[in-house]
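WARN retry 2 of 3 for item q-0093 after timeout on previous attempt; input resubmitted unchanged.
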Amino acid sequence: MDKLERISVISALNEFYDILSSAYDSDGVFGFNAVTMTGTWFAENDKEAEQMLEKLDAVIDQHISENLKEG
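OK item q-0093 returned
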């Protein structure tokens, strides 16, 4: 399969989650904030960063679930 064919909303969200999660795992809230450059996702502390990651994971799971029902 061509790399461009694998690009989808789900794959982009999963990639984004993996990037944020890896940055957080490497350096906590500082790593998380280094990746979230726009400030929209700025976290004040580790707990807040963890909550954002959990919420993003839940949104991804919900989107996958809804697409499975439709498809």
